[in-house]
């Protein structure tokens, strides 16, 4: 495609998403606010998750699959002693158990067991579809179905601090990894249950949240001012 066919708004926006809106909410709001017809995102963040959301604009939406396949790095906290149906703080509490005495070393020994290839079963409260129906819709009806485990890879998983019942961690993984499922499994290992309390995506591929514009700041920009924040199409194609 000749260079002159690309506009200044054919590219990617790096957004620092706050807790609250869904990834689709952000896409929809950008489309309406700036009058851009084609807008997509490269990897969903749950509503209460924060951090890097890669948004693609115009012709760059054709690169969404390529960009979505990149590795991710997250930071967050896991709360031990409480299990929820969604494996995170958004879900309903299903069990509450005493937390055994845990040390940072014990947490990291358990975390190390997740490093490498991992067959992961998607949570029932997820957007994964079963016969065309998202699992979360079945979960709302208290219907649980068999889910096909998926192969993911955990490059690194370490806790940096622990103050009962919260452990602070950093995790690097392949696309499609459910960090909340790892939190749930970790709680099972210690016999007390656990859920993902907070999650922040700090990087996706070569992009870092430090490069991103906070979402509230985005709405202050004019379409012309927006252009300077767009990673050009040709730069994305080389990523």
Descriptors for this entry?
Pseudouridine synthase; 34% strand; alpha+beta; 8 helices; eleven-stranded mixed beta sheet; 239 residues
Structure description:
It is a single chain. With 239 residues, this protein is α+β, with helices and mostly antiparallel strands. The chain has 2 domains: 3-69 and 205-237, Pseudouridine synthase (2-Layer Sandwich); 72-203, Pseudouridine synthase (2-Layer Sandwich). It is built from 8 helices and 15 strands. The strands form 3 sheets. Strands 1, 2, 3, 4, 7, 10, 11, 12, 13, 14 and 15 form an 11-stranded mixed sheet that branches. Strands 5-6 form a two-stranded antiparallel sheet. A hairpin with a 2-residue loop joins strand 12 and strand 13. The two termini are 17 Å apart. The relative contact order is 0.24. The model has no long low-confidence stretch (mean pLDDT 91).
List the topology elements.
Layout (H helix, E strand, L loop, with lengths): L10 E7 L5 H12 L4 E3 L8 E8 L6 H5 L3 E9 L1 E3 L8 E4 L7 H9 L3 E5 L8 E2 L2 E2 H6 L9 E14 L2 E8 L5 H11 L4 E11 L2 E2 L4 E2 H4 L4 H4 L4 E2 H5 L2
Parallel strand pairs: 1-14, 3-12
Antiparallel strand pairs: 1-3, 1-15, 2-3, 4-11, 4-12, 5-6, 7-10, 8-9, 10-11, 12-13
């Amino acid at each position: 495609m000749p260079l002159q066919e690309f506009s200044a708004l054919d590219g990617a926006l790096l957004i620092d998403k706050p807790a609250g809106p869904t990834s689709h909410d952000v896409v929809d709001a950008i489309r309406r606010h700036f009058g851009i017809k084609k807008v997509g995102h490269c990897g969903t963040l749950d509503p209460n998750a924060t951090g890097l959301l890669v948004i693609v604009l115009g012709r760059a939406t054709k690169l969404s699959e390529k960009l979505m396949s990149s590795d991710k790095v997250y930071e967050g906290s896991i709360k031990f002693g409480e299990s929820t149906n969604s494996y995170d703080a958004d879900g309903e509490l299903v069990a509450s158990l005493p937390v055994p005495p845990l040390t940072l070393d014990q947490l990291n020994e358990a975390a190390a067991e997740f490093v490498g290839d991992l067959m992961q079963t998607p949570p029932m409260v997820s957007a994964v579809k079963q016969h065309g129906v998202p699992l979360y819709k079945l979960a709302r009806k208290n219907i649980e179905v068999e889910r096909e485990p998926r192969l993911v890879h955990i490059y690194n998983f370490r806790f940096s601090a622990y103050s009962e019942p919260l452990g602070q961690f950093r995790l690097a993984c392949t696309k499609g990894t459910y960090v909340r499922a790892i939190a749930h499994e970790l709680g099972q290992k210690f016999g007390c249950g656990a859920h993902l309390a907070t999650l922040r995506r700090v990087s996706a591929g070569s992009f870092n949240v430090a490069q991103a514009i906070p979402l509230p700041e985005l709405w202050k920009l004019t379409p012309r001012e927006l252009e300077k924040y767009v990673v050009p199409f040709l730069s994305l194609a080389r990523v």
